[in-house]
Predict the 3D structure of the following.
Amino acid sequence: MYFQQQNKFSESNQKTARARNDYILALVSANAAIRKFFVDDQPELINVCRAIILITIILLLVLTTSSSTTVNTATTTVIIRVRTIV
């Protein structure tokens, strides 16, 4: 009887240890994903949004002035600024 109780106790300890380890691994994985988003992905998204806003503003300026020289200059400006942002 004592050995049965001891076996049940050790089995339950193993199950709780496995569950705790799985929980810790899940936490580490979730934290790594969150950290990757805020360190890598979010700054890249912000840069892309800045580039889109800049392109939109320059294109609106080009459309309002509508001179062929201005269009060529604005296109070159857009390409140069987008390369520096992204």
Q: What stands out?
A: The chain has a mean pLDDT of 84.
